[in-house]
Design a protein that fits this description.
Structural class: mainly alpha
Number of helices: 2
Helix content: over 70%
Number of domains: 1
Order of helices and strands: HH
Shape: rod-shaped
Number of strands: 0
Strand content: under 5%
Distance between the termini: 61 Å
Length: 50
C-alpha cells in the first residue's frame, strides 16, 4: 500500500501544473539568494587577492 502511494505521489504532482509551478517558484526563491551570495563572496575574494 505504501509503495503505491510513493509511486502515485510524483505523478499526481506532475498532473497538476499549479503545484509544479509552486514547487519551481519555491526552489528558485530558495536558490537565487544562495547563488548571488556565492557570486558576491567570490568577487570579494578576487578583489582581496588582487
Amino acid at each position: 500500500m505504501r509503495r503505491a502511494i510513493m509511486m502515485a505521489g510524483p505523478t499526481a504532482i506532475f498532473q497538476r501544473p499549479i503545484s509544479v509551478a509552486m514547487l519551481a517558484v519555491a526552489a528558485l526563491s530558495f536558490l537565487i539568494p544562495i547563488m548571488s551570495a556565492r557570486k558576491k563572496r567570490k568577487a570579494e575574494q578576487a578583489g582581496l587577492d588582487a
